[in-house]
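Quick one, probably user error.
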């Protein structure tokens, strides 16, 4: 069983955002597998670097989407992203120094991601839905020009 399961309660209803969140969950689960099997520091650092790179791309996309829609809380949302980046960067530095940080990191990632999706992300998604006339179902990128 995966460390973090994707569930419908994590769906934002915006297909591309949900796909990106699911990929982040996959990286978290890759780290969990490493933790349960090899604990190879090179593997930890490799997957952690990929997670960081992908998350930065995701955050950039979210922030551009919010800019496009004149989201009034963009600055606060960006600040939340920046705080998360700094936390993960600290874990990466510790891991590169040889410290075994996976259990602590996994806990933080799982808790943060679920809370962020259900909280901050749900708030801007609601605004997107309102700006599009409250469509029912999944919103696809073609409906939102970035």
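Nope, works fine. Designed sequence:
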């Amino acid at each position: 069983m995966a460390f973090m399961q994707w569930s419908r309660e994590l769906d934002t209803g915006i297909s591309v955002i949900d796909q990106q969140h699911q990929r982040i969950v996959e990286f978290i689960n890759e780290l969990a597998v490493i933790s349960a099997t090899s604990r190879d520091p090179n593997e930890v650092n490799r997957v952690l670097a990929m997670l960081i790179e992908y998350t930065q791309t995701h955050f950039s996309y979210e922030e551009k989407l919010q800019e496009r829609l004149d989201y009034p809380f963009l600055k606060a949302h960006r600040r939340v992203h920046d705080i998360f980046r700094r936390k993960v960067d600290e874990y990466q530095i510790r891991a590169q120094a040889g410290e075994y940080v996976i259990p602590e990191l996994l806990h933080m990632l799982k808790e943060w991601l679920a809370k962020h999706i259900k909280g901050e992300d749900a708030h801007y998604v609601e605004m997107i839905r309102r700006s599009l006339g409250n469509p029912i179902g999944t919103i696809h990128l073609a409906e939102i020009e970035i």
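DSSP finds four helices and no strands in the chain.
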